[in-house]
Amino acid sequence: MSVNLHFANGSIRNTTISCDSLGIHYTVSKNRKVISLSRWDGRTNSNVVVGEFKLPFFRKDRIRVGPNGKWQPMRDYFDKPGMFSTSMTFRSNNGVKYTWKEHHGHLIMTRSGKKGALIKYHRNRWKSSYLEVLDSSTINGLDTILLTFLIAERKKRKRRETRTQQAEAIASGVGG
After folding, report:
1. Which domain holds residue 135?
2. Annotated region Disordered: where (predicted)?
């Protein structure tokens, strides 16, 4: 049986990600150039920052994992993909290596070196988008899984936007 983590809206900069039945509640917020992911901690009755990232236009992308983590270049955090690959491989806070990649228009997460999706993102324009957790063992690593998902989805949307702009430029050049 799968678990669904619902997004309050289509944004990946300002939203909440939750599964009420499991008591999972994350908040994504943007302050200036930094996107933060916080988890609600029922024991302390407060939000705990589990990670942050910056994707500046003219500087190197940076990531900070954990409440006391140090800023580091993203290229040092993620394993290097192949030359034309858009996949992102990382080690989660549960110690397992995972990979985010596009599969038939969906972003999915697999265990590195294995086939089969562990998590699949369902983006809906008219209803709530959600992450479908197909393997419950990933729940223990949600802090870094969600942080890296936000980065992977942001980069996927940026690639799609760039392709659309290039297609429009070509179309307007052909007609003009």
Report:
1. 3-175
2. 157-176
